[in-house]
Design goal:
Helix content is 62%, strand content 5%. The protein is mostly helical. The chain folds into 2 domains: 316 residues, no CATH class; 114 residues. Strands 2-1-3-5-4 form a 5-stranded mixed beta sheet. A hairpin with a 3-residue loop joins strand 4 and strand 5. The longest helix has 29 residues. The protein is elongated, with a radius of gyration of 26 Å. The protein starts with a helix and ends in a 13-residue tail after the last strand.
């Protein structure tokens, strides 16, 4: 509304409009907004320092996520997916179990995809850490901003996981937001949050566990048992599953994806993240998180009053993720954050009492916390930078993919010797289709016999693999890295495998026998 339009309004309406405008301006200038903006800027700066210590992406999956987001921008939010026909992600059954994450990545797909993925891995975790500050501030934790900066202090492995172009940073954001809603008794907000969590990431059952822990903690501390939060969360999850772009295939995919991880994650080689850390390795990369947890336990012993519901909830959540971390290293994306939250909640009453008793404490405590933060952040940031710098070069398979794109028919299948090669191949080359990718269980669940045969071939146990590669897998070309020496020896001796390309990262073979076996569900 223009100044002229305001002037033409009746006096009463004009005063009301001006009062609301002043109230809005005052709100924008509140200390909380200024602190939140400053924190977000600091988080972005620190995460960028970590992220751009190398031109490469952390991990492998980010190449797939950012590429699919670009395809969604170009072809629509529900594009066909023909690239893994011999898996449960074949064209007829494909489910994008990171759908909302890919939608959120779309703004980062303009320009260089690699750079866009890196900026997404700066901005999105920054929002997660800001949400942590909102939770702390909502519980009136003294020096909440300093505690929130502590996310950079607790664990180098945690920062590394947050810096990956994957959905786990937003998964943590959803859990922190869920914690805020239950602790402030805004239970209705759990419904849309749980709904969106289902569309975001397949770890959505964690929100039910978090809410259940809160209900138990409140009953334990306050003697009040209220299942309403669980009802809202469960309803949100139910609606998210049923009102879904991939319904009803998403129901079967949830079963296929989660069951192997829950029952025996090491039965099929699904990557190192599902295996536990060695104890000393965990101490090295997450020692400050363990100290934060132990510090919170000490604070409980120093308190005169029993812990409140918020502290009990954070304690139980931290214990849960701690147990899960000892079983699988991937839960390092949750335990350090909740160990820090528990530590902050546990010390909060003591800090308040000390500040009331002695005024100088209000000045000395933040100085001490700042010194600790600076030292630990320097350590963790530098360690995380080194971890990122150890990533595979982003050029890995770039030239080999270009050769395949230029010299093979559209849609022709590539037989790879590593399941995790798919993400980089897909990033550079959507011209071809591939044998296996994203998760080896996807092929194993599609056809266990086929998966076992693929393992035997890639480990050099099949003496003349060309006929099987062409006849059974329907592949006309093979790509392998230079580390598969057993397979390379067998391939060299196979008269029907012709080496047609080689660089410092990869070798490509042409299969000289005709494909006449299974084709996969795309029929290629």
């Amino acid at each position: 509304m223009t100044t002229q339009e305001i002037g033409s309004l009746p006096i009463s309406i004009k005063v009301l409009y001006q009062d609301k405008w002043k109230l809005f301006l005052n709100y924008l200038n509140t200390p909380a907004i200024l602190v939140g903006t400053g924190l977000f800027g600091l988080f972005v700066a620190l995460l960028a320092i970590i992220q751009f210590a190398t031109p490469d992406l952390a991990g492998n999956d980010g190449y797939y996520h950012i590429k699919l987001a670009q395809i969604m921008r170009q072809q629509g939010l529900h594009p066909p997916f023909p690239w893994l026909p011999l898996t449960v992600l074949n064209p007829e059954s494909y489910v994008d179990h990171h759908f909302l994450y890919h939608v959120l990545l779309i703004p980062f797909t303009f320009g260089d995809l690699r750079v866009g993925a890196k900026w997404a891995s700066v901005v999105l975790p920054a929002f997660t850490f800001l949400t942590g500050w909102i939770v702390l501030r909502g519980q009136r934790v003294p020096f909440a901003a300093l505690w929130a900066i502590g996310f950079f202090s607790v664990s180098e492995a945690f920062l590394y996981r947050m810096s990956m172009p994957r959905a786990q940073a937003l998964s943590l954001l959803a859990l922190l937001l869920g914690l805020h809603f239950v602790l402030t008794q805004r239970y209705r907000w759990l419904l849309p949050l749980s709904f969106l969590y289902v569309w975001l990431y397949d770890a959505f059952p964690l929100i039910l566990i978090l809410v259940g822990i809160y209900i138990f903690a409140r009953w334990l501390v306050e003697g009040k048992f209220n299942v309403v939060p669980l009802v809202y969360s469960g309803l949100g999850i139910g609606l998210g599953v049923l009102i879904n772009p991939y319904f009803p295939d998403n129901l079967l995919f949830i079963y296929h994806h989660l069951l192997p991880k829950i029952t025996d994650p090491t039965a099929v080689s699904v990557g190192g993240e599902w295996h536990p850390y060695q104890t000393w390795t965990l101490v090295q990369n997450s020692g400050f998180a363990l100290l934060a947890f132990l510090s919170g336990i000490v604070a409980l012993g120093l308190r005169e009053k029993r812990m409140n519901t918020a502290t009990a909830t954070a304690l139980l959540i931290a214990i849960l993720f701690g147990v899960m971390l000892f079983k699988s290293r991937r839960f390092v994306e949750y335990f350090p954050a909740f160990a820090l939250m528990f530590c902050a909640f546990a010390w909060a009453p003591l800090f308040r009492n000390w500040i009331k008793a002695k005024e100088w404490v209000a000045q000395e405590l933040p100085v001490m916390m700042t010194i600790i933060l600076i030292l630990t952040i320097l350590w963790n940031v530098q360690s995380t930078q080194k971890s990122l710098q150890a990533s595979k070069p982003y050029q890995y398979y770039a030239d080999a993919s270009l050769w395949l794109q230029t010299n093979t028919p559209a849609g022709s299948r590539i037989f790879q010797t590593d399941w995790d090669d798919f993400t980089r191949l897909y990033f550079y080359n959507t011209h071809n289709t591939y044998t296996v990718g994203l998760d080896p269980t996807y092929m194993q669940l599609y056809n266990a016999e086929l998966y076992n045969l693929w393992v035997d071939i890639t480990t050099g146990q099949v003496t003349t693999p060309s006929r099987i590669i062409a006849g059974t897998f329907g592949a006309g070309y093979v790509l392998t890295d230079l580390k598969h020496q057993d397979f390379l020896s067998v391939a060299k001796a196979d008269p029907h495998l012709e080496e047609v390309y080689r660089d410092e990262y990869a070798v490509v073979f042409r299969v000289l026998v005709q494909s006449d076996g299974i084709k996969g569900k795309e029929g290629g």
